[in-house]
Amino acid sequence: MGTLTCHYKRAGSEAPDEVLTRFRTLARRHAGGRVLDIGAYQPDDLLCYRNLGSLALVAADARLLAEPPPGAEFVDTGLERLPFPAGAFDVVICRFALCATPDPCRAAREIARVLGRNGHVLFLEHARAPGVIGQAQDQAQRMLHGTRHCRLNVEVVANWQLVGLVMRRLDWYWPPCYARAPLVQGVATHPDQRYRQELAWLRGTEIPGGKP
Ligand SMILES: [Zn+2]
């Protein structure tokens, strides 16, 4: 598939500095071990990557190829099928990437697959808003379908949850001046073992108290 560029990565329509700074701080705090970065587009995005075990860059802006961080590997791939084994990464960083891929849910599933059991996904995306704004986004998306615009109405949190990840942290940012998609950033992980067992139990047994 062709490579779409997210609206927020284009010159003149960047996400607010405070949001980008907050996300980079989050990334700096978590980045360690084996890292997969999806969608880096500014040199500052790569500043936190020192002393890593390994760093794979997917869907990175071509300008970043000029000065890659030490040991970084640029991997040319779509997100629907990532060329890495299951559990390959301790941290996956995902920046304005789900909106630019043809099938965000499948991309989320692939990211969950390559995330190690105790790994973290850090994401910053624009998302479908609830209520009327979300409906307007759906309508706009229908009109834009087939154009070179990134997808306006990705249900970011629902996508992570659909593929089995749980939210450890979630921050929304609503642009103050004009109606645009809200931005959402957060940390998602696999559920811990105990939680997984509880979920299986809830799904596979009768409701407690239902029996005499
Ligand atoms: Zn986008």
UniProtKB/TrEMBL annotation:
It holds the Pfam family Methyltransf_11. Residues 66-123 form the Methyltransferase type domain. This is Class I SAM-dependent methyltransferase. It is an enzyme of class 2 (transferase). GO terms for biological process: methylation. InterPro entries: Methyltransf_11, SAM-dependent_MTases_sf. One of its GO terms (molecular function) is methyltransferase activity. Keywords: Methyltransferase, Transferase.
